[in-house]
Amino acid sequence: MPLSRRSLIARAAQLGVATGVAELVAMLEAVHAAPQDRGPPVPSKPILTISPHVFMIEARDGFPTPENLGLMSNVIFVAGQRGTVVVDSGASVQIAEMAIRQWKAFRNQPVIAVINTHYHGDHWLGNQAFTAEWGPELPIYAHAGTREAIAGAVGIFWRDAMERWTNDATAGTRIVAPQKDIDHGFEMSLGDVTLRIHHYGKAHTPNDLCVEVVEDGVMCVGDVLMDRRIANMEDGSYPGTFETIDMLTANSRTKIWAPGHGDAGPQVVTWQRELFEGIWQSCVKAIEEGVPLDGALAYALKDPRVSSRAAETKGWDRNIGKYVSIAYLEAEQAQF
Ligand SMILES: [Zn+2]
């Protein structure tokens, strides 16, 4: 009879004391593989048409909860004559299974590659379902730094955190790391449509990839831009984000910005840039005047580019102070 999750954890703890780390790791993996502890299926969400070749399952919520089962980031499909490429695979095996189910019903065309835009777990924890469906050889592309993070401690952190945040709704999700490194300038033709990769250094993380769907004028930006959600900037850079936005704008003919969270549309780039400029310039001003962090936050909250976003932005109250403080620290380091 299979062991329960609880008894596996208890035994893992005993083993950790009695024997060694290798046994502990093996037991913890068994906990994650235990099928009886798999989280429930995710209810189907519609596939939205963004452009002739770009389609999206949109997550309405900005953050993972037990109620939304972790569905908090968009899964994007780029469909051409040669097959479909998925940009970001969702936050769990169950979410990706839903996305695959929906894609097969919408257009029964095989997925021939997955691209992970960066290493935050809501953008790659679904990889497992795509390799289960289309085989372990299915190419999963990412920046080398993203691959290394997912294959290491960062990957484990995200898988475990997602389980915790969803009260185990994502249980059963295994880490399937990207195995193909790509970088700025990489192109992939799907016959009638071309994917082009952009990377301009640290923005939301050190290793973000943006995926341009050239013929459609669509830019899949991962979390470099967001629509009415505050980005997690703990791994990012404000000036780096401005630089990336400038380069993406200069080096593409983007009409529609497709973010990892929120709606796709022409407005996303302005929405994000103005909010970040309001935060960043308030911090620079505070530091130039010798004003401490509290004062910088007050400046930012008074800035119309910031205050006008408060009501419509998911996670505002919990995060605005944190992300102003990150900008303040970065501005302080830039100064000295
Ligand atoms: Zn992210």
Describe this structure as you would to a colleague.
Strand 10 and strand 11 form a beta hairpin. Helix 7 packs antiparallel against helix 8 and helix 8 packs across helix 9. This protein has 11 helices and 12 strands. Strands 1-2-3-4-5-6-7 form a 7-stranded mixed β-sheet. The chain has a 5-stranded mixed β-sheet with strand order 8-9-10-11-12, with no helix packed on it. It has 3 domains: 33 residues; 185 residues, Metallo-beta-lactamase domain (Metallo-beta-lactamase, Chain A, 4-Layer Sandwich); 64 residues. The longest helix is centred in the last third of the chain and has 21 residues. 41% of the residues lie in helices and 15% in strands. The mean pLDDT is 91. The chain has 336 residues and is an alpha/beta fold. It binds zinc ion.
Shape: globular
**How many domains in all?**
3
The chain-level mean pLDDT equals 91
Going by CATH, what is the homologous superfamily of the largest domain? Answer: Metallo-beta-lactamase domain
Ligand inventory: zinc ion
Strand residue percentage: 15-25%
Low-confidence stretches: none
Main beta sheet: strand number and arrangement? 7 strands, mixed
Number of helices: 11
CATH topology of the largest domain: Metallo-beta-lactamase, Chain A
**Could you state the order of secondary-structure elements as H and E?**
HHEEEEHEHEHHEEEEEHEHHHH
